[in-house]
Amino acid sequence: MQLHESRPEAPDGFVKTGAASPDATLKLRIALSQADPAGLTDALMDVSEPTSANYGQHLTQAEIDKFVAPKPETVTAVDQWLAENDISATKLTTSGNWISFELPVSKANDLFDTEFSTFKHEETGDESIRTLAYSIPTELVGHVNLVHPTITFPNPFATLPVFSSPGKAPRGAVNLTSEAVPASCATTVTPACVQALYSVPTTKATQSSNVLGVSGFIEQFANQADLKSFLANLRPDLSSSTTFTLQTLDGGQNPQAQSQAGIEANLDIQYTIGVASGVPTTFISVGENFQDGDLEGFLDIINFLLNESNPPHVLTTSYGQNENTISSSLANELCNAYQQLGARGTSILFASGDGGVAGSQSSRCTTFLPTFPSGCPFMTSVGATTGVPETSAPFSSGGFSNVFTQPSYQSTAVATYLKALGSTNSGKFNAKGRGFPDVAAVGDNVEIAFQGQFGLVAGTSCSSPIFASLVSLINDRLIAQGKSPLGFLNPFLYANPGAFNDITTGDNPGCNTNGFPAKAGWDPVTGLGTPNFPKLLAAAGAS
Q: Which residues belong to any copy of the Peptidase S53 domain (predicted)?
């Protein structure tokens, strides 16, 4: 046996309460080593770098499977080990790089030379069976990337935006004939404010193939009646009957009782449909029957979309967790899945988080806590701004990954920032890590309809669907001209810093510090800044 993964202790807030019951059933997943992960990265960058001759020539799933499918010798070694131990496994992906099986704790302890224990999260009271280290047989070394869930812990901080000022009367649409952003947008943000801030036209999209996907988790449901009220009051130029299609996985659903409407789901749907005028929008509801364990459907939804012949061109997600709760091997597996979907031509956007440099914890940390998956270099992380003129929102999570190294597309921008930062926060972050967020959008005092009332919400969970909507509108114009959608965004974004409104004021406090200050150019509070739609449209080569 050879030690495969370990962690020195449980994440902050988790305490070991004793050995797990030997009869308890574990649902384990194994990630098999992939044939050519470096080749996948090269292929993704080749179709994503604007200067590449193959820019926009996205890959098919069959082409991607050649990179990620296990080698025959890997399949043979793992199948032989499964047979020797009388284990029947199920493939979870088309390429076969993930398999799943169930077995009792007693057998898992023997197979992986470990002791699974019960851990309790002190704040939530939730219990889970985990270990701090495990081994694999030497004959599987080089064939198995990881066994999950083992040293990865659940996400205890699945927070939602706070709905404030319920009952507030909507003002209706703002007159956009003026160049100036209406003063009311400083305290109440509507779709019209987004259009005014970022020069977004109200012209409706025309391309039916250009789907915008909105992911839904933790039983957050998007309500049709609230959407109808939202559009009637705040986008009266769109039909109030405009709606979304529904996809479900892992037992997901979308019930329509008013009391079941979710703040996050309503926000995400209202600000995609309400800003991406006319773009076909799909709400993808992930249920609680996870196939990916503590990833809580994050990997399941990507595999679900990879199985589609035409996955959405844009996917926005307003959920995440602290990077330190997830093993580095598992983080890399999920990041690899984002590469696959990006290579298919999907732009993947995530909210960066709402705890400043503290991730989900405001004071207990002594070093900065990056969020996940924002540290993954193959997705686009979206921070938040507040006010008019815009300044960085103090809650906007940002920083540097402790798992992923800095990608080449941002190296110049990050180096410029670090030079200007000097010794501030020295030792509290990994200066060689992938910096995030990449971009930002308004995320404070955002008006939504929720359970029959109007009110305000705040968070980077507002910013991601707003930025995703602008990407979808650009894709609409590209596709209308016979061109490819943008796909993986970051090389394009960092190549065009002039297409953003640079945010140079504010910071993102946490861990008993002021966090990072926003500065000229990229910064780990608002990224490159907020979008200038006409300039981004021109940079993309769309009229």
A: 188-543
Annotated binding site for Ca(2+): 502-503, 521, 523
Over residues 70-113, the pLDDT tens digits come to: 999 999 999 999 999 999 999 888 888 899 999 999 999 999 99
Q: Are 369 and 323 in contact (CB under 8 A)?
A: yes
Chain centroid, CA 47 distance in Å: 21
Residue span of the structural domain in which 380 resides = 218-539
Q: How far apart are the first and last CA of the chain?
A: 60
Answer with the one of 103, 129, 148 that is the final residue of a domain. Answer: 148
Active site residues: 264, 268, 461
Residues 142 and 233 in one domain: no
**Statement: residue 174 has pLDDT above 50:** no
**What's the predicted TM-score (pTM) here?**
0.93
CB 204 within 8 A of CB 242: no
Residue 39, in any domain of the structure: no
- Token pair, residue 346, equals 């999907």
Note whether residue 237 is domain-resident: yes
Name the H helices within 277-344. Answer: 298-306, 328-343
Rounded-to-integer distance, Cα 465 and Cα 470, Å: 9
Question: Per the domain annotation, does 175 fall within a domain?
Answer: no
Contact 58, 343 (CB under 8 A): yes
Q: Do 262 and 341 lie in a common domain?
A: yes
Q: Residue 83: is it exposed, middle or buried by C-beta count within 10 angstroms (0-12/13-18/19+)?
A: exposed
Asked if 144 and 252 sit in the same domain, the reply is no
Name the domain count of the chain: 2
Q: Decide if pLDDT at 385 tops 60.
A: yes
**Core vs surface per residue 187-202: b (16+ CB within 10 A) or e:** ebbbbbbbbbbbbbee
Treating both helix axes as pointing N-terminal to C-terminal, what angle do 191-198 and 460-480 enclose, rounded to 10 degrees? 60
Give the three-class secondary structure for 283.
strand
Rounded to whole angstroms, the Cα distance separating 374 from 113 reads 33
Which positions ≥6 away from 516 have C-beta within 8 Å? 357, 398, 399, 421, 424, 425, 507, 508, 523, 524, 525
Q: Which of 119, 148, 177 is the last residue of a domain?
A: 148
Distances in Å between the Cα of 389 and the Cα atoms of 25, 65, 101, 153, 393 are 55, 47, 54, 41, 12
